[in-house]
Amino acid sequence: MKMVKKILLGLVVTGTILVIAGCKMQDDPENAITGSGSNYKVDYENTKSEEYRAYESTSLKHAGALVKITFDNPEECANSKMGVIFDLKENADNKNAKDFYIIGLGSSKSSSYDFYVSKYTGIVDIQAKNFGASTDAAAGEPKEVEYFKLSNSNIKNLPSTFYVYCKANIKGEYEFALLKGEPTDGKEMKINDLDLTDLPQGVSLIDLPKTAINGCSVSGNIGKIANAIEIPESGKESDIKQNRIAVYARIDANATLKGSWKFCGTYQEAEEIEE
């Protein structure tokens, strides 16, 4: 368990800094993902005949993040995926199971399909194919709800470096978007001051497929998942439900994936400072 300091945004704490203990959620027996704090890497050769999956979460809970993802070997990683998991939490009925949303992306230089967004509930075996979930699962079984199907959600010319944006709002929605480019003024983008409708010069939204389903919609290249979280009774952003964010990798059988994730700020919480 790591000790971290956090300052709650928008909350006045009478001259004190709260010190909170945070525990990460992770599943990566092969140690494919390395790093800590705001920076993580994957450099893993999968010599097995099955896919390998791994994730590592933030220590603290958040309601969104801006994550820079880079594929270092975009032409050689086959159909491997990198992505962001959000609203990661224990299942209400089974403490050994996890619930989460995921945005998964592949390199369009090597993958036939390179984008999907899904919700998973009751996941107990991350290494199982599709986390052991199905879209027609019976009650109590691991279940997937697809918002963008991998089979028909190819994004043309996805760059090797891009940003994943995900953020909860007071309407109970989770917004998400993909961005490319870098600010021409040289300033690093931060989620708390990033306006998707007025992006910094040099930065643009990546076209999302128009194939969203199951309560997900796309408007102006910004996706929104309806009824994703509880609506705060107070109507205040500071009371939005928070859970962990995680970086995620899926390495194809007999393939190598090299890449990195960089957290460019998290929503509702200050950056984590490891001690």
Q: Can you characterise this structure?
A:
It is a single chain. Helices cover 0% and strands 44% of the residues. The chain has 275 residues and is mainly β. Strands 4, 5, 7, 12, 13, 14, 15, 16 and 18 form a nine-stranded antiparallel beta sheet that branches. The chain has a seven-stranded antiparallel beta sheet with strand order 3-6-17-8-9-10-11, with no helix packed on it. Strands 2-1-19 form a three-stranded antiparallel beta sheet, with no helix packed on it. The chain contains no helices and 19 strands. Strand 9 and strand 10 (115-123) form a beta hairpin.
Q: Any key phrases for this structure?
A:
disordered N terminus, mainly beta, 9-stranded antiparallel sheet, about 0% helix, 19 strands, 7-stranded antiparallel sheet, single chain, about 280 residues
The portion of residues forming beta strands comes to 35-45%
- Rg is 18 Å
How many E strands? 19
What does the largest sheet look like?
Answer: 9 strands, antiparallel
Q: Low-confidence runs (pLDDT<50, min 5 residues)?
A: 1-21
Total helices: the number is: 0
Give the helix/strand class.
mainly beta
Blueprint (SSEs and pairs):
Blueprint lengths: L1 E5 L11 E5 L3 E2 L5 E4 L2 E8 L5 E6 L6 E8 L9 E10 L7 E9 L8 E9 L19 E6 L12 E8 L5 E8 L21 E3 L10 E4 L2 E4 L18 E8 L3 E12 L6 E2 L1
Antiparallel strand pairs: 1-2, 1-19, 3-6, 4-5, 5-18, 6-17, 7-12, 7-18, 8-9, 8-17, 9-10, 10-11, 12-13, 13-14, 13-16, 15-16
